[in-house]
Amino acid sequence: MFEQLKKEIDLKLSSAPVFEGAQLPAAELSPAPEHTGADLSLNWAMAAAKTLRKSPMEIAKQAAVLLREVNGIEDASAAAPGFINIKLEEGFIIAAAKDRRIKDNSLGYGGQNKILIEFVSANPTGPLHVASGRGAALGDSLVRIHRALGYLCDSEYYVNDAGNQAQLLAQSLKARIEGKEPPENGYHGSYLIEMAKKAPKDLKEEDYGRWAMEYLIKTQQDDMEAFRVQFTRWFRESELHQEGAVQAALKDLEKNGYAYEKEGAVWFGSTQDKEAKDDKDRVLVRADGRPTYFMADIAYHKNKYDRGYGTLVDILGADHHGYVPRMKAAVHALGKEEKSFVPIIHQLVHLLENGEQVKMSKRAGKFITLRELVDEVGADACRFFFASRTPNAQMTFDIELAKKQSNENPVYYVQYVHARIHSIFAAAAEKGLEPAADILTPLTPQERALLLKLVWFKPVLQNCLRDMSPHHLTTYLMELAGLFHSFYDTCRVIDENNLPLTRSRLLICQRVAERIKKGLEFLGVSAPEKM
Questions:
Q1: pLDDT at 277
Q2: What is the C-alpha separation between 77 and 36, in angstroms, rounded?
Q3: Across the beta sheet with 83-88, what order do the strands follow?
Q4: Cα 301 to Cα 245: distance, rounded to the nearest angstrom
Q5: d(CA 228, CA 224)
Q6: How far apart are CA 290 and CA 380, in angstroms?
Q7: Which of 412, 434, 440, 461 has the smallest count of CB within 10 Å of its CB?
Q8: Distance separating alpha carbons of residues 329 and 314, to the nearest angstrom
Q9: Least confident of 2-6, 310-314, 376-380, 448-452
Q10: DSSP label of 72
């Protein structure tokens, strides 16, 4: 219904004789500031001012008159410097709030475009650390929201199980088995001491690296399972080499004029490309014939396209800024549109415990693993906290706050509303009361505000995809919880002296609980019925 309202607004404005013949922008609806007393606000007049060659206020006044004729709109008015404030009819708000549909029907089946979101993809040389958790929460929530809105979207974890990592891992494990320190350039984490204890006694030295890598891959898979992340596929780099995909990708680059030989090696030549330029040419195949990681990455992305994916989303850690231009150049060299490659870089996570930052050094093997954090504060708090900031902002994760069972803790604040509503349902059931089929009018200000917030659920999900960040959803859920608290404190839900009103408010509670449960589900967070 909300989308239909937007279409009718666009149609009314574009077909109006007063604006006829102009290339007008589409109307963008947003919540109106509280002081206006309105429900929606449009900056359309300011966006159209240059095209129409009129002042924004003049356009806003003309548009407001037209919009009063649109079904569902009770009133519309102009406000300086050119906003259009809209008040909706109560019947429209109620009907829109009751509408459970969130799939975007305009997409058709799957939106005609398969999307692949690759995330975490940590090297299988140690347990997952906290920053991997941030990438996992981001990627998994985006996959869930894409699917909910009707997109065909898969998730993938790329396992770098080729190259010299297995050899370094083998040397490090061997040292730990022998009670020695690993080589300086090896892996120093204490997890290797535990692995050395679990290594089979009959394990041959040449198999140390492979055994250790498989052990760690299984550990990472278990960590993701505990973090409520399910991947469509765990794709191994070794598969590319076994299938000859790396050589095939190299031939494509040569055919397209992007590979050349110099000093016995094969180089990727992108510096002369005007459309997708990297800062320097890079080695694809070393002089000894071994392909570089970059060459394997190009082959992997070609493989993604070959599997039918039209949009490739790569979620990368904070140390991957230099990776983006070279991969954009590679995508262009493969003959694909640059916009089909969507890189997202998430920033670092700083852990705060008892008011002090936890110092971590991955190189020294001293770091808090994702599993340790999940065990300490729970998957719910981890998922919600990680999702609450935009990827491009560094975040501080307050461990003590995440463990609090009070309204100071944002995930507890939201979950408590869901649990409280279920306690209301239980009390109503004891009295034989069920939600009504419809909501009574006139609405109180608290009922109206709460129902209006429900209407914004789908636009918030669309904003998450527009910005490729679920932080809009965490903000929405906290605001919805706040409005419910206000409603609950002001509007008595169960009133045996007014059963029609009781059943009406039970329906409002039901819709709020549904939205909170669904929103938390998209974040990978549970919605408990008791707390």
A1: 67
A2: 10
A3: 29-31, 40-42, 83-88, 73-79
A4: 10
A5: 6
A6: 44
A7: 434
A8: 15
A9: 2-6
A10: T
Report the 3 state secondary structure along 167-209.
Answer: HHHHHHHHHHHCCCCCCCCCCCCCHHHHHHHHCCCCCCHHHHH
Higher pLDDT, 111 or 233: 233
Q: Which helix (H) or strand (E) holds 111?
A: strand 110-118
Question: Among 54-63, 97-106, 304-313, 465-474, which stretch is predicted with the lowest mean pLDDT?
Answer: 97-106
Q: Is the bond into 442 cis (omega within 30 degrees of 0)?
A: yes
Taking the CA atoms of the chain, what radius of gyration do you get in angstroms?
A: 28
The residue type found at 42 is: L
| CA quadruple 110, 458, 32, 466: dihedral sign | negative
Q: Please report the pLDDT score of residue 378 as a whole number.
A: 97
The pLDDT of 194-218, averaged and rounded, is 93
Half-sphere exposure of 389 (CA within 13 A, CB side): 18
Rounded Cα distance, 269 and 258, in Å: 5
- Mean pLDDT, to the nearest integer, of 294-322? 95
Distance between CA atoms of residues 192 and 105, nearest Å: 51
Helix (H) or strand (E) segment spanning residue 482: helix 471-490
Read off the pLDDT of residues 271-289 as tens digits, 9 standing for 90 and up.
Answer: 766 666 677 899 999 999 9
Beta strands (DSSP E) in 394-520 are: 395-398
492 pLDDT above the threshold of 80: yes
Find out whether 283 and 316 touch, Cβ atoms under 8 Å: no
Ranges of beta strands (E only) in 50-106 are 73-79, 83-88
**H/E/C letters for each residue in 17-39?**
HHHCCCCCCCCCEEECCHHHCCC
Geometric angle at alpha carbon 520, from 481 and 391, rounded to 5°:
100
Which tokens is 325 given?
């231009």
Average the pLDDT over each of 135-144, 187-196, 407-416, 507-516 and give the range with the smallest value: 187-196
What is the reported pLDDT for 261?
A: 94
* Stretch among 47-61, 365-379, 427-441, 470-484 having the lowest mean pLDDT: 365-379
Q: Which residues contact 364 (CB under 8 A, 6 or more apart)?
A: 188
Q: Name residues whose C-beta falls within 8 Å of residue 468's C-beta, 6 or more positions apart in sequence.
A: 142, 313, 342, 344, 391
CB neighbours of residue 441 within 10 Å: 13
Amino acid at site 437: A
C-alpha distances in Å from residue 504, one per residue of 98, 421, 436, 450? 12, 14, 5, 13
Coil, strand or helix: which one is 331? helix
